[in-house]
Specification:
The protein has 2 domains: about 35-75; about 80-124, no CATH class. It contains 4 helices and 5 strands. It has helices at about 15-20, 35-40, 50-75, 95-100; strands spanning about 80-85, 90, 105, 110-115, 120-124. The strands form 2 sheets. It has a 3-stranded antiparallel beta sheet, with no helix packed on it. A hairpin with a 5-residue loop joins strand 4 and strand 5.
C-alpha cells in the first residue's frame, strides 16, 4: 500500500492510477438527475415554448427554496428537503435468471435540514 504524508513524496498520476487499479476503485463524476421534461426536450419531443416555461418555473422554485433557507437560518421556520434514491434490489445479482426471484426492495429516504445541516437517511 502506498501512503502519502505531508512531508513525504508526491505520487505521480501513474502511481495513483496503479494504486486505484490494485484496490479496484475509481473516481466517477456523479450523474446529474434530469427530469422527464428536460430529457424529452433534449430528445426533441417537447416544444421550446413548453421547455422555456418549465425552466422558468424551475428557477422560481429554486428562488423560493433559497428564500426559505434564509428564513430558516434566521430561525423563522424549519426547512427540510427530502430525496428518495432509486429502489435498490437486494441481494445484488449478476445472473439474469435470478433477477426475477429477488424479494427485497430497499427504498432510501434522505432528509436534510437546511439550517442545521443535519441529515437523516432511513431505509425501508
Amino acid at each position: 500500500m502506498f501512503t502519502l504524508t505531508q512531508a513525504g513524496p508526491v505520487a505521480s498520476s501513474q502511481v495513483f492510477a496503479e494504486e486505484f487499479k490494485k484496490m479496484n476503485i475509481g473516481l466517477v463524476m456523479p450523474k446529474k438527475d434530469q427530469c422527464d421534461k428536460c430529457r424529452a426536450y433534449t430528445a426533441g419531443n417537447v416544444s421550446e415554448t413548453d421547455y422555456l416555461d418549465h425552466v422558468k418555473r424551475k428557477e422560481v422554485a429554486r428562488g423560493t427554496k433559497e428564500a426559505d433557507k434564509k428564513r430558516a437560518l434566521g430561525e423563522e421556520c424549519n426547512v427540510v428537503t427530502t430525496d428518495v434514491q432509486a429502489v435498490q434490489l437486494l441481494p445484488y445479482l449478476q445472473a439474469s435468471a435470478l433477477y426475477f426471484r429477488q424479494k427485497l426492495a430497499v427504498h432510501n429516504l434522505t432528509s436534510y435540514n437546511l439550517a442545521t445541516n443535519e441529515a437523516a437517511c432511513t431505509a425501508r
